[in-house]
Amino acid sequence: MEACHFIAAGQVPQIASAGKVMATVFWDSERVLMIDYLERGKTVTGVYYADQIRKRRASIKQQRRGKLRHGVLLHHDNAPAQTSAVATAAIRECGFQLLNHMPYSPELAPTDYHVLRSLKDSVHGHNFYSDEEVIHAVNDWFEQQDKKFSMDGVISLAHR
């Protein structure tokens, strides 16, 4: 993947706490690029996801100078918001190349099988008393992951 920059996107499932916390995570072979925590009461829509795609392009431009020039491969699952016309248009507008994801195959989404499995293991058995505690725990967990963790997720795509 030397010629392209790979990013994966996925939604962190709602983690039970005093309420529910939903997040969209974008990561690449080096680290998490961004976590966006959805405002309580909101849902992930095509417009929301399209906005996230545009923000990722801007962050790649800033955080990974020169990577856009080589191209960006985007992998996500087939969630309705991600496959909506508005999201698909934003992906094209940003010049990202979308990697195909087989229908009904969540085990192939790297965020599901690699990132979330590990995150779920780390928070299993913890009681959170507020959304802020959940967000803090998730942010801390991501900060503790090294470059090897992210690269392992990208490399494991070949086996899936």
Topology (SSEs and partners):
Layout (H helix, E strand, L loop, with lengths): L4 E12 L3 E9 L3 E6 L8 H18 L3 H4 L1 E4 L4 H4 L1 H9 L2 E3 L11 H14 L7 H14 L2 H9 L5
Parallel strand pairs: 1-4, 4-5
Antiparallel strand pairs: 1-2, 2-3
Tell me the CATH superfamily.
Answer: Ribonuclease H-like superfamily/Ribonuclease H
Strand order of the largest sheet: 3-2-1-4-5
Helix content: 40-55%
- The end-to-end span amounts to 16 Å
Question: Taking Cα atoms only, what radius of gyration do you get, to the nearest Å?
Answer: 15 Å
The total domain count is 1
Number of strands: 5
Q: Unreliable runs, pLDDT <50, ≥5 residues?
A: 1-7, 14-18
SSE class: alpha/beta
Element string (H = helix, E = strand): EEEHHEHHEHHH
Largest sheet: 5 strands, mixed
CATH class: Alpha Beta
CATH fold-type name: Nucleotidyltransferase, domain 5
How many DSSP H or I helices? 7
Globular, elongated, flat, extended or rod-shaped: what is the shape?
Answer: globular
